[in-house]
Design a protein that fits this description.
This protein is mostly beta strands and about 130 residues long. It has 1 helix and 8 strands. The longest helix has 6 residues, at about 10-15. The radius of gyration is 15 Å and the shape is globular.
Length: about 130
């Protein structure tokens, strides 16, 4: 028989709203099946015109971002990538600075690995990562 505490069911939009979009990662409580040191998953709901306040610099993780709906632009040094059709995605590695802008109301799924503490932009000692 499966231990029910090892299974979590939810809905991405309301669950994500409770933790700045993040559904899974090191920041979830111990014992929560959504806690992971290996990977972070975000369900990002972005209204048209929303953009990152400042670039992410000194990235220490790898990331995958998949467009669910809308139109979403990512900026990298010397390159712009526009996710325009459902399923469009981009992957970038460690050390790649980036920023983003929602050109339309957008939903994007982000997967980052590993899940590292100290990346919350609203923490006073955190580097400019999110």
């Amino acid at each position: 028989m499966t231990d029910d505490s090892a299974i979590y069911t939810g809905k991405a939009t309301p669950d994500a709203a409770a933790d700045r979009g993040w559904l899974l990662g090191h920041f979830k409580s111990p014992g929560d099946p959504r806690r992971s040191e290996d990977v972070e998953i975000k369900w990002g709901v972005h209204p048209k015109g929303e953009e990152r306040e400042r670039w992410v610099t000194g990235e220490r993780r790898t990331a995958l971002q998949v467009l669910i709906s809308g139109r979403f632009r990512l900026e990298f040094p010397g390159r712009t990538v526009v996710l325009a059709e459902q399923g469009d995605y981009v992957v970038w590695g460690r050390g790649v600075d980036h920023s983003w802008h929602a050109e339309e109301d957008s939903v994007v799924l982000t997967v980052r690995w590993p899940s590292l503490p100290g990346y919350r932009a609203d923490e006073p000692s955190a580097p400019e990562h999110q």
